[in-house]
Amino acid sequence: MISARLKHHLDAQGLPYDMVRHPYSVTASESAEMAHIPGDHLAKSVLIHMEEGPFLAVVPSNHQVDLQALQTMMDRRLGLAPEFELDQVFDDCDTGAAPCVGAAYMLPTVIDNSLSGLDRVWFEAGDHKTLIEMRGADFDALMERAKHGSFCTVH
Prior knowledge:
The chain has 155 residues and is α/β, with parallel strands linked by helices. The protein is 26% helix and 30% strand. 37% of the residues are buried.
């Protein structure tokens, strides 16, 4: 099931996408495995907390946010947002299945450079059984207003 806000935003952008169903999974890495897609092509979202409010950091599912690098890039003290804040922001999604499209939730977004220029990209649709699949060029267009940088490490 796709979240209502995500669907509205994607439809408003007019960019083509497909929904890919997969067996229930808890983590983004598991979703990639269950859907038989490369982990470095599945964009996962990490809610980051700063004094001015939360923002979304987007990295490949087989990577993690390097908070030190992100703090340097943003020139701010940052921390991971607590789970209750995730549930408040993504109130039309299952816990832990937040889409990486911050604009659909009025969230500032930063995306790791490694997710740009890919042939295909997948990301959470808002539950634990559905991914959105897009051509990489369409994903790049969807994320063009996000801040771009290098701030992740392989885990």
